[in-house]
User: Fold this.
Amino acid sequence: MDATGAVICADGLTRRFGPVLAVDRATLSVPRAAIYGLLGPNGSGKSTLIRMLCGVLRPSGGAAAVVGIDVRRDPEAIKRRIGYMSQRFSLYGDLTVMENLRFYGRIYGLSAARQRDREEAVLHLTGVGAYAERFAGQLSGGWKQRLALACALIHEPEVIFLDEPTAGIDPVARRDLWDLLFELSHRGVTMLVTTHYMDEAERCTHVGYIHTGRLLVSGEPGALKARSDVTPAGTRRFEVTAPRAADALARARALPGLRDATLFGTALHVLMDAGWTAEALASAVSPEGGASARPIEPSLEDVFVWMSRSLEEQRG
Amino acid sequence: MNGFWAILLKEFSHLRRERMTIFFALVVPSMQLIIFGYAIRVKIEHIPTVLLDLDGRQESRRLVEAMEATRTFTVRARVHDAEAFRRALTSGRAKVGVLIPADYSDRLLRREQADVQVLVDGSDSQVATTAQNVMSLLALNLSMQRGRSVGESLQVAVARDARGRPAIPIDARTRLLFNPALESAHFFVPGLVAIILQLVLLFLTSFSIVRERESGTLEQLFVTPVGRLGLMLGKLIPYTLLALAELLLVLVLMVGLFDVPIRGDVGLLIGLSGLFIVTVLGLGLFISTVAATQLQAVQMSYLVMLPSVLLSGFMFPRSEMPLPIYWLSWAIPVTYYVEILRGVILRGADLRDLMPFVGGLAACSVVILSLSVARFRKQID
Assistant:
C-alpha cells in the first residue's frame, strides 16, 4: 500500500509493441474495496493495461504497484495475491466444478485444511456448490462465470482483475454477478473490471476511460461529471426528446450557440450556451411541435464522448 | 517447480476423461504395427507376364518353364500378335512382356546368339528392378548350362570344382547374417516402432498445450504463480509415461507377433528409447509454441512426420539418397533412433557399436529441447 492507501496504482505506465503505443502514460489509483470500471473500445489498450498490472506483461515505461508490490520488481509475488477472471471461459470443461476448484487450490499451494475452508467459502458465496460434480463445460454461461469467479477467489486474493466478466451472458446472470462483486467489495476486496456496458460503469465506485492507449479520465463518477471541461462555464446540457430524433439532430446542429450534440437512442444530448432555455430549444429543433427538452447532468457516456472528441480534435 | 503437482494431477484427470487419448496412444499403434508389419512385404513374386512366343518349339518352351520356375514371373496371357502383346502392357494387365522370336531355336542350334526381348513396365521401380535382375540371371544360367554341355562334348572346361566337374571360375559365397530368411518384417518392424512412437507423442504433446492456448486456460495459468518448469514438466511427464507404456506394448507385439527377437540388451534399448522420447517431447513442445490452433498443430506435426518416414532410412535405404538429402537425413532424430533400434534388436549391437548414433540423437535432443524451452519461456514473459 502506498501513502494514499491505494491498492492498485499506476504512474505513467506505458507499453509499446514495436512502433505501437498500446498504453500511453496511464496514471490511476484505486483505493481498497473499490470497484474500478475500466471502459474503452476494443483494442484501446484495456487488456494490455490489465496484463501489466497482473505482472504478466513487462511495462516499457512508468511504474505501477499492486498491493504495494512493484510490478517490475516482483511480478510473481503479485500473482500470489491477485485473482484474474477473463472474458473467455477459461476453465477446464472436461473437469468437474470441484476438480477445477481443487486444481486452482493446488496451483496456489493451499494446505488441505485451508483448501476445504476456502472451497466451502467460495461455493457458499457463488452458489456453484449445487453443481459440484457437474462438468464445467456443461454449465450455462452465467454459471461458468460464477465458477470462474470461484476459482479466482480460491486463494482469497486482495485484488481481482475481471476482464469483461459479463460479456455474452444474459441480463439476469449479469445482475447476479454484479451483486456478487458488491458483496466482495463489502468484504474489502478491491476490483478492477473492464466492461462495454455504460450501466455497469455507472455502478462502479471509480471509472476510467481509455481511448487509443490514453487513459483520458480516471476518478469517481461524480467528480468526472462535474469536470469543468465536460460542462464549460456558460453552457448548459439538455436532453431533447423529439418524434424524429435524426431530424431534430440535424436542426440542432444548425442552431446558434450549440457546442455539442449527440444522439442517445431516441433522445438527444446537447450542450448549449447558457442563454438557451428548455422551451426555446424544444421549439427550435421541432417547429411542428411534439418535442420536449429538459436540463440534465452529464452522464458518464457524455463524459467519455466529450473526452474522446476533444482528444481527436487535439490530434487534428 | 511451482504448481508441478497441480498440473500433473490435472493432466491425469484429462487422460482419464479423454478415452480417445488412451485409444490413440495404445490401440492405434498396435493396429498400425499389425497392418504395416503384414502389409509391407518387399519380396516380389508372381509378376504378371505376357508371352508372345513366335517360336513355340522345345527351346522356347524350356525358357518359359525356367521363367515360371523362378516364381518371380507368372505367365498371365499367351498372345499371338504384336498388337495384343502391346495392349497387355499398356493396359497394365502385365508388367513384363517376353517376346521370343521365330528363329530362337534355330539360332541356338546353329550356335548363334539368340535374342529374347523382355519389356518391363518401369512404373514401379522395385518390381522393375526385380524383373530385370531375375531375367538377366535366368538368361545367364541357361547360357552357362549350354556352355557346359558344349564344353563337355569338347572335353574342355574353364574351371573345375573339387570333384573335377566343370564349374564356373569364380564362385561368390554369400552368407546372410542377422536375418537369414530375409524376412522383411525384421527390417521394417523395428523401424516402425520409431515412427509410431514419434507419431503418437508428437500429436499428444503438441495438442495438450495448444488446446490450453486455444481455450484460454494457458492465459489464465500465466496469471497464477505457476512456474515455467512446473508447467512444462507437469504437462510432459504424463505423456512420457504413456509413451513408455506404448513402447513396451509395441515391443511385446514385435517379439510375440512378428517373431522378431531382441538380440541386444533390452535395458539399453529402453534407455536409448528414453532419450528419443525426450527429443520428441521437445519437438512437440516446439510445435505447441508455434501453432496457434489445434489444426495448425496437426499440419505442423505432418510436416515433421513426412521426412521422418521417407528420409530416415525407415522405408528407403539412406545410402541410395542424393547427397544433399543424405545430409538432411542426419538432421532427423528418427534417423538415429531407427539405426539404434535395428542395431540393438537385429544385430545385438551394444552401446559402443551405437556411439555415433547415440551421440547424434543426444545432439538433436539438446538442440531441439533448448530451442523449444527458450521459445516456451519467451511466450510466458
